[in-house]
Amino acid sequence: MLFRFLLNFVMKFYRTLTLISGLFFITTGLFANNGLIGWATCNTLGQNGTTGGGRGQIVRVNTKAALEQYAKASGDYIILVEGSFTGTGVLQVSSNKTIVGTGNGATFDGFGIDVKDKQNIILRNLTIKNAKPDAIAMRNTHHVWVDHCDLSNSDDGLFDFTIGSDYLTVSWTLFHDHDKVALANSGTQHFEDVGKNKVCYHHNWFNNTVQRNPRIGYGMGHVFNNYYSNVSSYCVGYHTGASVLIENNYFYKSKSPLNQMYTSVSTAANYADAEERGNIFDSTSGNKKGTGKSFDPAQYYNYAFMLDDAADVPAIVQSKAGNVYGIEYEYLPSPANGAIDVRNIGELWWSGIENVQSWEVYFGTDPDSMVKTSMTGRSFRPEELLPDTEYFWKVNAIKADTTIEGSLWRFHTAPAKASKPYPANGELHAKLRQANTETTTIPTVLSWIPAFEAISYKVYLDTTPDFSDSSYQASPATASIAPGQLRFGVKYYWRVDAVINNNTIIEGDTWDFISDVYYSQEGITECEHMVLNGRAFKEEQSGVWFKASNNWVVSGEAGPGTMSSVWGGPDAICKVSIDYFDESDGNGWYGFYVNDTYVRGWAASRNNDQMVTVNIENVRILRENELRIAFYTNSGELCRTDKMNILITENLEEPQQLQPVVSTPYPPNQEMSMNIYAVSGLLLKTITVRSDADGRLSDQHWMELPLPSGLYFYTVQGENIPTRGAQRFFKP
Asked: What is the dihedral angle through the alpha carbons of 67, 72, 75, 76, rounded to the nearest 10 degrees?
């Protein structure tokens, strides 16, 4: 107790001293650890990090009317806010704005900030209190940095980041005396959040709050170096497919540091993953363990230079979180501090401050021996940059009466060749479709991190790593391609060659993935085998309402989903029956597709918690067609699909066995080794075979195998046997 009393006293004294001696600290690098890092630094969605009004006009405002005028104006502005304003309603903010409180900060009392369908916004050194409904609300907005703010006592949330918003960093902010604090999702049933909500919260102070500190759904959350004190409900909440790294935080007198929300069952739709590492739990209660899984933030941005030990967090955060004197004198770099995979850019630049006469730029690969260059403008063209190299730089602002020493910045350039593929190299269950709208899916796009100097790419794709002219796909100018010919259950190899300015080709690495698949035959297909972006889970749990066939169902309770299988039967006219559980608390929608052709849709509409069968007559299905069931909810947890039953009513082909396709005969009368694989790539059996006098393989080699009917692959090896990719065969 004595230690904590002394610590709080020191922190208050330090804060007071900082305010009194503002200019002294400014000139000696007060902002060394304040700069932007995290998700908001990423180069994507048309944004090279988050720069706000960086290159725009600097304006000072001292009235609420002037603030409103510039905040909603088009164009780039750095808005320096003087004083405190009271009022009601919300402050509308448009894209490419930096709003900074001057001096000790600016106060908004009674009104908050509202942003919708915008991008590239920086909010710093602002106190917002008594706002209605939210202190800060952002919807469908990306590349945002909220820093050194003081948020409290609002009507609803302190900071809601929802409806498809993405790429957020919240740093050095004091959240206090409030119930619903920081929301990074729109709930459990919002398609617009799928693949988004990438958020970073670091060095914030959550004090005397209740819940949502933050609450993260769907996206990838990085929560590090935050200080939690007197949180009465839970600290970090996560749900609905989120992946969260909770790292080096200090939890003090707080409940439930880690909170898996809406479910405790790993197979349920609202389940999420969270990894806990390096945290300190001081006088806490409730859950302190995650699932042990998360993403690696270092794949997207560098933050190691900012990561503090958890033991140091209370002192660091209490001294610096919230409003900071003189933060309007900090200027910010582009590329962002800690940015990685930076391409060969023409110039470096930084945001402006008032009344600067000249600038001193220090640049190099060693922070202790950077080369100095003096200039009048706010941009710098370095000598030729190298790929896969870390650079350091610093800029000092020369004013008439003082020098403002800048922070040490760093960035890492991209490799010379394409890197970080999606699907990831070696992926065993790559999805060939991804969510597009609430009711449809589209073929998955293959993508990669752009090469350092590439102006275009040459993409090769094949079922063998021995690429030929026939493997060539396209020459996109951007780092992605949508190959429409991909099939289920196949191992694909691909390579991306970078084309640089002088038409030199930099050959890429060879990557591979296996496309996930389940084959349907006549009869019942359990829908848990068809899961793409829904979730299969067991229904025999406490608190559920029914027992499904085989005890498993696919649920759309987390929003839209898709199930998919490939037809392994003959070309036929079929009757398709789909069984689902129709709950009583809301409406949902289903659609059945053959390939991309819409066949039938129907509503699931409050049918009193019953199993329902929908029959679809006269469906034409050809061998290797994709069968797809799409579903979404708009209220309640009601789309729970159990099984699909297919009855062939008319066979459109003569009964025959599918022969393997071999483009080139093998040597005649040659003994060889044959490997038999499942569509997943699993090796099932190795047998010895012999070609006939024409170099062909007899059906008996596989027809007599003790395997269930279905699709398989085989490879053949032997002396003088040409190398080929896997061949297909179908066992009736």
From this structure: 50
Catalytic residues: 212
Full-model pTM: 0.76
**CA-wise closest residue to 567 among 486, 628, 634:** 628
- pLDDT tens column, 78-93: 999 999 999 999 999 9
Instruction: Tell me if 537 sits within 8 A of 552, measured CB to CB.
Output: yes
CA-closest candidate to residue 419, choices 514, 509, 298: 509
Query: CB burial class (10 A; 0-12, 13-18, 19+) of residue 597?
Result: exposed
Which among 71, 90, 89, 87 has a CA at the least distance from the CA of 79? Answer: 71
Q: Report the alpha-carbon distance of residue 515 to residue 488 in Å, rounded.
A: 5
% of the chain with per-residue pLDDT over 90: 61
User: Nearest CA to 242 among 281, 186, 285?
Assistant: 186
CA 395 to the chain's CA centroid: 33
Q: What is the C-alpha separation between 297 and 683, in angstroms, rounded? A: 35
Cα–Cα distance for residue pair 324/315, rounded to 1 Å = 15
Residue identified by tokens 């993403």 is 295
CB 441 within 8 A of CB 632: no
Amino acid at 400: A
Reference 268, options 639, 557, 580, 583; nearest CA is 557
Rounded Cα gap, residues 89 and 133, in angstroms: 8
Radius of gyration of the chain (CA): 30
How many CB atoms are located within 10 Å of the residue 511 CB? 23
pLDDT tens-digit map of 332-352: 999 999 999 999 988 999 999
Taking only the tens place, the pLDDT of each residue in 367-409 is: 999 999 999 999 999 988 999 999 999 999 999 999 999 999 9
